Protein 1
Amino acid sequence: MVGTQWGDEGKGRVVDIVAKECAHVVRYQGGHNAGHTLVVDGEVFALQLIPSGILYDHVVPIIGNGVVIDPRVLLTEIDTLAAKGVNCERLMLSPQAHLVMPYHQILDELAEGRRGDNKIGTTKRGIGPAYADKASRTGIRVEDLLDPEHLRSRLRGSLAEKNVILRDVYGHEGVDPDRLADELIDEIAPRVAPYIGDTVGHLHEALHAGERVLFEGAQATFLDLDHGTYPFVTSSNPVAGYALVGSGIGPGAIDQVIGIAKAYLTRVGAGPFVTELHDEIGDHLVEVGREYGTNTGRRRRTGWFDAVMARQAVRLNACTEIALTKLDVLDQLETIKVCVAYEVDGRRYEYLPHLRRLHDKAIPVYAELPGWKTDLSEATERHDLPREAVEYVSFLERQMGVPIRFVCVGPGREQYLRFAA
């Protein structure tokens, strides 16, 4: 399952729908910079690292090797869920996943502040620096928590360089590696250790037994480090293909790719946004859709649905179907627009232009459809939808070239319907 836009499509919501038919839910990339919000019996669950399937007793939630983990955030999330009666003992954590350290967060914030007008829009959670350490082979992995002396040695080596940068470039006092090691060894490791397991072996045994496994991506296609709107992207690969790398399975194991798309479009932070709205309709979408970040509280930018992006996402992820969320947010609109193509220097594009610089020059080509001016929140079947809503969803299906399987009409667990057979 993968987001087809810039994140915040409601992936956790749809994972919760599909997870009840699965035995395992795997988070395969990203960190606690991505939040998934679920509403169950009126109670809100805001998840950051733990897979959304945790709310089903029969599901084994797995955090794969492709994720970067702030262990303090993980433990806080476990404690919060436990206080709400959710048992997290089934959680499995890959020993090869990398840890987000306090110095990653310090560097993230200092570097973003130094960029001035060229800010990327990072959440300052240390995700990028943690992935950078992973690539430069100086990172700290989950399994290092099980070997105190090795952990201490790794921290000293990593911080020998980091402290020079912190002091000489940013004027920061630096981080004491031994004090950090003591904290991790005494407070963090004993609590994290019970969750560490052979996630790769477990997944292969499950697949061999014919059990259903759901791979849950964080962020979304156009925040992908390679295929997104670079440099305004995340530091990992949310596309479906990375589910293989980030969990340790082969490509033959994937037989279904569900793309999640919001019925309109949102984005957090800087970067191109061809269909962005700067008017009262944009404000309306923010307020009705409660478009504020789960983790950061930042107001999201809003715009009309972009079929150009959606087609590209279907292509990049080999989507077999789409789950459409937040259709109900459009209930009060008289007319609704859909971007069906871009025009750049007189040329029409139906997929994203292959040169990133052309995105900034793109002019949206819109189709306009009638709104339905009807409350959809009680709809449970396709025939409950007004004709105009059916026509809108069907139009999006034709634009993307794949069936829309689910349509969500509210935040509640049961507020969805099956659209395609």
Note: The first strand starts at residue 2 and ends at 3.
Protein 2
Amino acid sequence: MCDIWKGNHNLKQLTEDDISGLLNSLHQLGTRLVLMSGGEALLNPNFFRFCEILKEQNIKVNLLSTGLTLKKNASQIVKYVNEVIVSLDGDELTHDSIRNMPGAFNKLREGIVAIRLIDPSYKITARTVIHRLNYSKWPAIIEAAKFIELDQISFLPADVSSHAFNREMAWDENRQHEILLSFEDLSQFKIILEKLLTVYAKEFENNFIAESRVKTWNIYKYYAAYYGLCSFPYKKCNAPWVSTVIEADGTVRPCFFHEPMGNIRSEKLDIILNNRHAINFRKKLDVNEDETCRKCVCYLQLAPGNSL
């Protein structure tokens, strides 16, 4: 679902100097958590040095990963990373097919085993993008998450309309419909979802499935909205007010989906986030009316004092 790897032929990546230069800003902003993402963050040769720098400042580090190299890096992950979130696309066959990599599912499983051998209580969760290629396997995805002994799994629909994730151009209609559920898919999707909400009642109640039933049902509404069957689901989100995104080349965004507002290689992060342009953006942003926000799939809502 991500084109970051396609647009990174010149191997843009953050350096140790970039991370060290951020520390004053992170302190001033009261930063509590840094999520390392990619592409695959573990491919950056400085990854664990980044983690070490941040941990020394009592900033938690979480890792979003494909899981392919967890086994190789297990000991350092346990030492420097607070939590791992893996991408899970389906049961073994579906996951390997979508990843276009035979053995990807088993490598993910082996990595989880390797980490748990070091620390049996280490938290490993998953995110799954539900889309045209895997929605029929939704129950099997939950069973796969149990099989590889994840602590929790989260679901979201696919972003097909934005420039996020290094898309130089938004996907054209043909590319969108490779991922977007078709109108004909919706009836079957609805049946699968209704059954899921009943069969996996326990998993919703004990939070093995991270979303509530309402939020899970919103995945259907998200796809149905593309065909005018309903409005895009209402969402509460304060991501531009409580977090920021720093890309591989230093570009700063208020969240993954909105336009850049600066670069840490030319200006300090706290100055970028609190200049007149950034403040004006946040003052005027109405997440209920903004077109980017209305179609957003990845929203965040943190209340004051919320635990990270």
Note: Residues 12 and 249 are 6 Å apart (CA to CA).
Protein 3
Amino acid sequence: MPSAAESHPPLRVALLGCGVVGTQVARLLTEQADDLASRVGAPLELVGIAVRDASAPRDAAVDRSLLTEDAAGLVERADIVVEVMGGTEPARSLLLRAIEAGAAVVTANKALLAEDGPTLYKAADAAGVDIYFEAAVAGAIPIVRPVRESLAGDRVRRVLGIVNGTTNYVLDQMATTGRGLDEAVREAQDLGYAEADPTADVEGYDAAAKAAILASLAFHTRVSLDDVAREGILAVTADDVAWAAQTGHVIKLLAIAERRDGGATGEAGVSVRVHPALVPTSHPLANVRGSFNAVFVEAESAGELMFYGRGAGGAPTASAVLGDVVSAARHRVLGGKGPQESTYAELPILPPSAAVTRYQVRLDVEDRPGVLAQVAHALAEHGVSIEAVRQPTARGAADVAEPGVAELLITTHAAPESALSATVAAVAELEPVRTITSVLRVEGA
């Protein structure tokens, strides 16, 4: 008697893109064909791979007979379309065409989802087909499905994550080897963690796109890339990293999405931002090393949850893609449909000034009595209180201390971003203050 997989006609899978991730998806579909068929209840047949240049050299794992430059024709003869080509166009047009033709869609395209995800969600809902995107955030780490489905009965308060492996590797190297930013970026490029043009990583664009996706899912509110306050790591120096270690912190590029209920500030809504921050060494995110990613979720009933693993790479990302393919394929075989976009909350998106955080400010001041009192007064005038003040017994070997100048490091208590930034500006204008050397936020405390 034939198995269910043998009796069901094959499901046709079209693959858009054959780069590092696409190659691994094609390999896994071939090598694990029997297992995938058993899990789905039907064979998965890779019917074509759309590429820009079918004559270009390819990995031996890719069946060249499947290559085609006719992406539009390919998506119209598929049951499931997998998009790993990246960019907004022609990916958006091809996915909309696939949905219109009745195909389920699996995408790893974070930029497209952050920029115009609602268009795809609306089209998929109207057509009655699935759209899955687990691989768009944090590679192999299962974070989209837990936030979208497992925590659907809970109230997520905060999502705090390291979602860009390149910047985490760079900052980790700066902390462990003493390298400067430029040198650490070059090493990341040599190892294949960073592109030849690392702008999307080091300036925070990649992390911001992922933050927008996570915030949309967590708070049932549409959050676009333009809604995310973004600051990259280009201003982080070796001195910042050394000072972080002295104060019991490490520096991480964090994606932070919070639901705020107003309170003293009177502003309720969603705050989403990406920036480098000091994380206490006691926090789980502080121990995320190298190119790994981790996402820390705080929910009212579930409490604190952390998801950790490889956030990039061909095989890890392909693993997440195949998980989505299996889910979409099962629905084709057994009936049913995956989760739809949830935007019922329609919470307002708060401006960056409404975020509540802490600052650690490093400054050079005249070394004379009364200076700290002036600085403390400036903070108090803006409603910001001091948690701690530190002064090194000696400056670093690389620094040449100017006679009569002292270095101070001030850590504040939590306050609105608007008050903190105004305070720093006021302190910089004080007569005994020579320069503000560094300003970093403190998160996770």
Note: Residues 314-334 form the longest helix (21 residues).
